[in-house]
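Morning!

This is the sequence you dropped in the shared folder:
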Amino acid sequence: LDPRLLRGIQHRSEETQACLAVIKARDTLVRTRTRLVVHCRGMAKALGTRFPTCSTASFHRKAPEHVPLALRPALAPLLEMIEQITTAIRAYDREIEAIIDAKHPECRTLQQVTGVGSVTSLTFALVIEDPARFRKSRDVGAYIGMVPRRQDSGDSTPQLRITKAGDPLLRRLLVQSAAYILGPHGPDSDLRRYGERIAARGGKNARKRSRVAVARKLA
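The structure's back. Tokens below.
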């Protein structure tokens, strides 16, 4: 065994784990609410009714008046549950803001980047925890699994998918931030132009590769 191949493992502190638990609990509620909203829309569509276009946060307010009479016994409890989940998500949002103000003020600096909000900045700070353990900033991209796999045969070097190592929640949040930066509402910036140059190369999944590249730059 060559000891030089080994690397030390740094465990997260109990306080960091507790703060991450708040973010992961919120993420579970957000995904649950999305599934409930999609289910309600699907049930109504089967009877020829469409709910108005709106955000998931406002769905419980705008949907009730459009529920078909035949579906009210089935959808009314779900709409009440969506409302309760929305209230709980807002409570988690306030808790996240309190954690940032009390323990992680550096997140406010991270939020200066367009598309990066409280949840993404705090998740990044908690997952990285100690930036000094990385020798260079490029190592962070590999740490959260946003660098391509390698498979060199000598004759060819195929382009493979990213490794998807590390924390999946942080990786998803960074990709969402990158999607906003590259989207129609994202203002002009170095990150946006960087992603547009990659997308302009064309090829299969060019837009998807550009979002991943911008997310890696964010990290």
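Headline: The mean pLDDT is 93.

More detail when I'm at my desk.
O.
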